[in-house]
């Protein structure tokens, strides 16, 4: 394989953009393991009293990820996220105003490999979420497992990440004062296994839990499509039924997380590595679907609003696809 190295005279700003994305990839793939190792080593060292105090704090703070988390305005506005935004670049597009007195569930599509668009738009202020949607607070839902890791849980909560448990989502969208936005990557871990350039297949046909909770609490449903999300990484071929896919599905059933074997470019060369390609991401927030509170929604209610949601998602995609690099004959597929 011929290796294409990056030129030496790259402007400093582009180098800083690459560094910002590198730290994000590291945070996503390895920071939790490093935090856990640091806690164990601290507990076994002369600093064991610090580990003990933190364990006490962890016990007292255990429910915070399911009760709105602990956002940090400072962390969300770090300069590093501006470099992260400019690397792709990443853009957040508003189609309509949203009433800050209501609660919302944003259905984010597609999941992609590392959910870069959801993180950059809803866990930082780099693309201006608070400016575009004044009075709203965004919370990206993440697997509960990660909020059990010492130190790491505190860091990710600073950006607005919260547990994806049912109780966590219910807490956010049931606040009477409104203003909460719960962002859900609806396709979840299984969809990440199909994330590759050109992919437009969404795992959403049987995803109805968020519809049920929206009905139960009267939260408005908002489809969100992130154009370019699947263009960031290549992935090893893993068609359904292949040995690799069976192994990935087995690991996912055991651990709750998917393990896509992805690759893109490196830091100093463009031929291989885990740094995403520089491809633009345009995240378009659609119009809200009015939902009346139904404390005990029937299966018919859920199916009706699920169908309405899918139709609105299709319309959002079709209305914007030509503006963001897709062809007229490209359409979404739901499985």
UniProtKB/TrEMBL annotation:
Keywords: Acyltransferase, Endoplasmic reticulum, Lipid biosynthesis, Lipid metabolism, Membrane, Transferase, Transmembrane, Transmembrane helix. One of its GO terms (biological process) is triglyceride biosynthetic process. InterPro entries: DAGAT. GO terms for molecular function: diacylglycerol O-acyltransferase activity. It holds the Pfam family DAGAT. One of its GO terms (cellular component) is endoplasmic reticulum membrane. It is found in: Endoplasmic reticulum membrane. It comes from the Eukaryota. The chain crosses the membrane at residues 21-41. It is a multi-pass membrane protein. Its EC number is 2.3.1.-. The keyword Repressor does not apply. Belongs to the diacylglycerol acyltransferase family. This is Acyltransferase. It comes from Nothobranchius furzeri. The gene is MOGAT3A.
